[in-house]
Amino acid sequence: MSKTTRILKHKNLFNDVFKRQYSDFVRGQATAAANLKERVLFHGEPSGPSVVTPVPGPRSTKLINELETIQNVGAVQFFVDYDHCLGNYLFDADGNVLLDMFTQIATIPIGYSHPRLMAALRKPENIASFVNRPALGCLPPSNWVNKLRDVLLAVAPPGLTNVQTMQCGACSVEHSQKAIFMWYQRHRRGGKPPSEEELKSCITNQKPGTPEICIMSFHKAFHGRTMGALAITHAKWVHKLDFPQPDWPIAPFPTLQYPLDEFVRENREEEDRCLNTVRELFEKWRLKGNPVAGIAVEPIQCEGGDNHATPYFFQGLQDIAKENNAALLIDEVQTGCGSTGKFWAHEHFNLREAPDLVPFAKKMMTGGFYFKKDFKPTEGYRIFNTWFGDPARMPLLQAVVEVMQEENLIELNAKVGSYFLKGLTDLQKRYPGLIMNARGLGTLTAIDFNTVESRDKAVYNLRQKGVLVGVCGEKSMRFRPTLMFQNHHVDIFTDIFNDVLAGLNK
């Protein structure tokens, strides 16, 4: 078979898959949404879960055993038939259909196989970006500036006008840290160039070129698994064990009581306690000769337990950073792109000005970080890697943003989130002592269980009934649905969740 024949064969196969999925989309029948008088956002998706085997089923189990001969499979749950996944539903290798409320660890923005994303793959002007991947830092494509302006900067956090693309969330955080350190040292030098001694000593990790400066982070934080991001991650031992890490300050993150409107005084006292500790740590590390160059914080501590704080806390952090000439990094890798009812979660906090740096990834289809102009490196190759992101992701993000705007998905997530949170609150009233602390912003929600064993059993039982959810913290269940998640999906979930809780409560 000639090379041309092989290319045509693959092209025809791709076209067949696209035509089938697009046909399903436009031909689809009204789902349960019609009964609720909801506008159908994703035509053709299943009307609910369908489970025909245990999950994982026999084919997934066989594939897991085969994969184990090649690599560790400790995190593998089951295998997926991505050719058939549609909307909010995941199809596994055994023919089970699951309502996906964790969406590839919070990375699927507008559902599986959305026709607009499939169409973006077919546009002739996008094909070169998929085939010819550039070393972006050296040889960017001629349309790259326009892509950055029209796509990434069009949805930038208010007040931030610079952006740097990256591969993933961890490297976005890690390079944000480097931007902070370079900014901090430039100010220490008074804008002068580094000395010859600094240039030589940094090569062997020695002073003065390798300075003693640090980033302050928080207990239960998660910022990524690369070594720099791991230095400010403190959620679970599985992330950290056996890896050498710097001794940097770790502050307490507020432990709030829910519902928030019933514990205003107690929560304010808790946040004041944490802010006072942040101030003390700044002074302690200054006296140690290892000053804090920046604070890294998540708007919601996702992996650490979906831990929330109020706007008062984040405003206080920004004030303390300013007082100490330190940067404020707000990590929006999991919280960005609309799921909280605003495009960026920190927009809920009414900060006095924009954060200094905002890393992003996951639903944004690409990694990267936004930053204030003062944090731009003054030399080439200081923040750099081979690919520096992926231009092929930009047409996909552009399609996502267009759908978000056309379907008003941010407002939808705020409304559906309120409906979802009410459903969780009703269930915790029905099963007191088993579940508690329902909380969330938009559809980014979570609930706690009385024990880790009951939480894990509920996750397993939900999966057997066709619902995929996530876990976090010590005994929390978290939900990360798509932006196309609607009230009728909430009803499907709460009915199934009620059955699972009833079984646990016997």
Explain what the structure shows.
The protein has 506 residues and is an alpha/beta fold. Helices cover 41% and strands 12% of the residues. It is built from 17 helices and 14 strands. Strands 5-4-6-7 form a four-stranded parallel beta sheet, with helices on both faces. Residues 2-36 have low confidence and may be disordered.
Assembly classification: single chain
Number of DSSP-assigned strands: 14
Q: How would the global form be characterised?
A: globular
Strand order of the largest sheet: 5-4-6-7
In this structure, how is the largest beta sheet organized? 4 strands, parallel
Indicate the structural class: alpha/beta
Strand content: 5-15%
- Helix proportion range: 40-55%
Radius of gyration using CA atoms only: 24 Å
Q: Alpha-carbon distance between the termini?
A: 63 Å
Which segments are poorly predicted (pLDDT under 50) over 5 or more consecutive residues?
A: 2-36
Number of DSSP helices? 17
The chain-level mean pLDDT equals: 93
Pfam families: Aminotran_3
GO biological process, one term: gamma-aminobutyric acid catabolic process
Cofactor: pyridoxal 5'-phosphate
Protein name: (S)-3-amino-2-methylpropionate transaminase
